[in-house]
Amino acid sequence: MEKKLSTPVSDLDRQALKIGDEVLITGVIYTARDAAHINLVDTLAKSEPLPFDFIGQVVYYVGPTPAKPNQAIGSCGPTSSYRMDKYSPILMAEGLKVMIGKGERSPELIAEVKKYQAVYLMTIGGIGALLSKTVKKSEVIAYPELGAEAIRRLEVIDFPAIVAIDSKGNSIF
Q1: Active-site residue identified among 14, 33, 37, 102
Q2: In this structure, which CATH number among 3.30.70.60, 3.10.20.600, 3.20.130.10, 3.40.50.1440 belongs to the domain 2-165?
Q3: Could you give the 3-state DSSP secondary structure of residue 160?
Q4: How many CB atoms lie within 10 A of CB 77?
Q5: pTM score, two decimals?
Q6: Are 109 and 88 spatial neighbours (Cβ–Cβ below 8 Å)?
Q7: Count of alpha carbons within 13 angstroms of residue 25, beta-carbon side
Q8: pLDDT attached to residue 125
Q9: For 102, which DSSP code?
């Protein structure tokens, strides 16, 4: 049975998730890949404000393709998450609690997920065109110079994912 999640995700809803749970996310999620993570960490190092408040929000590791006419976004399949492992703990300290990507995370990152009681969700690579159908609106909110890696604010309905690491540090890997 799929669990419905609305954003921003409450502590109670996030902590109730267990590995293997299937979730459908509705609300706002933010995109950020490698280059955006570097910029976010640099922004924090300069004590400048982040482009959005991370508390209760969801970050999806994706660099979507351009939208076709009458679409909010192009294909938007996940990217490999391990590349964000060194940046994610810094963002979790700022309130990030839900991350979506594909693939395994390092043991060190799993320990940080447990420390911050965050969760890591996976979605399936190769179905980016299908995932794009859950996106109703997309707008670049930061780092437009990064092109596909700019941070976008996505409004989604029933975006599918699976809990790969829960807030207690249990991992399907």
Answers
A1: 37
A2: 3.20.130.10
A3: strand
A4: 19
A5: 0.96
A6: yes
A7: 33
A8: 83
A9: B
As a whole number, mean pLDDT of residues 136-145 equals 97
Distance of CA 11 to the CA centre of its chain: 16
* Residue corresponding to tokens 């995370």: 105
Task: Output the pLDDT for position 126.
Answer: 83
Q: Which residue ranges make up each domain of the chain?
A: 2-165
Residue 37 a catalytic site member: yes
Per the structure block, which two tokens stand in for 57? 């929000």
Identify the band that residue 109 occupies on the pLDDT scale cut at 50, 70 and 90: very high
Confidence category of residue 110, pLDDT binned at 50, 70, 90: very high
Tokens of 101: 């990507």
Question: Quick check: 1 pLDDT over 80?
Answer: no
User: Measured between alpha carbons, how far is residue 72 from residues 68, 94, 101, 135, 146 in Å?
Assistant: 8, 29, 20, 6, 19
